[in-house]
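User: Can you help me understand a structure? I only have the sequence.
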Amino acid sequence: VKGLAPDRLVYTNARAAVYVLTGRRSSPIPRKVSDKTGAPLPGYRDDLDRMRRALASRNGVVVYFGRMGGKLDRPREGELVAALGLAPIYKTPEGGIYEVARVDSARGGP
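Assistant: Let's start by predicting it. Here is the structure, written out as tokens:
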């Protein structure tokens, strides 16, 4: 993450960890459910759509930490990858770095 261009947008499920490890600011992955009640948040799908558009327009990445103390208000890694059409840049057992998958217009697929 330190090696990414400074203007590249970063979303993460662990903003404090990204900041402490890299000195870089990031945006939070949208919450799926209320952290107080556990009820689904009505704007979640819209938030994901905005996130995907921002990632695509600003060549952004998602930095996902797999072991974040059981935070259940955010989507799981696989769910986020599928919902946003993400492709891995770097993957470890503890998480990964993803970007929006590029579509090859000549072939009609990623």
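Now, to help you interpret it: The radius of gyration is 14 Å. DSSP finds three helices and five strands in the chain. Let me know which part you'd like to focus on.
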